[in-house]
Predict the structure.
Amino acid sequence: MTRSTRARIIDESLRLFAERGYAATSVAEIEAASGLSPGAGGLYRHFRSKYEVLAAAINEHAARTRSQVTEALVEVEAVGTSIPIEERLDRLCRAGLAKVRDESRLTRVFFRDLSQFPELVAVVREGLLQPMFDAITTWFRTQPEYADADLDWPAIGAVLGGAVVHYRLFQETVGEPPGRADRDRFVASWVRLSLGLISAGRSASAAGVAEVAG
């Protein structure tokens, strides 16, 4: 089994599933799009069924996401505080937008077809989505500017990460960005809200100390 043929089958099947839907895409169409003779059974030399192709695509995207998250955290540690917090936040937001854009085909398949495959929904949730939100939480907790902020970081990560995901999904489904805010305006506002957490977190910490002392 050659990797190149297998990869073509996975890539083309995901494209077709995103464009037409899982049920409406035939094995022969996947074979034709992958450069194989349609209807000759070439797909079955690499996968036992159309479902196995879908499962492979989901699992490979999840594995890639976990690897990307690990690499991103390593890069964050390498950069450290050598650049201003505003620039670090800007990079984080844009990286999130780029990641959601890269997974646009998978996103279409997820919302259209995966409800019938709960085991694959679990793979997307635990292998792709949750690692993204966990990475945001980890990032904020490791920045010195937020060290004194007594905040619910997992919930904040859900809000900030959810905003990034929603921005791309809204743009793809509706055809324009939410609020008609272009990417640069969205990023600038995301950064500004994130910066506000610094003072908000310190205020919460001070209030907690005062309450204990009182």
User: Anything to note?
Assistant: The mean pLDDT is 87. The CA atoms of residues 98 and 168 lie 9 Å apart.
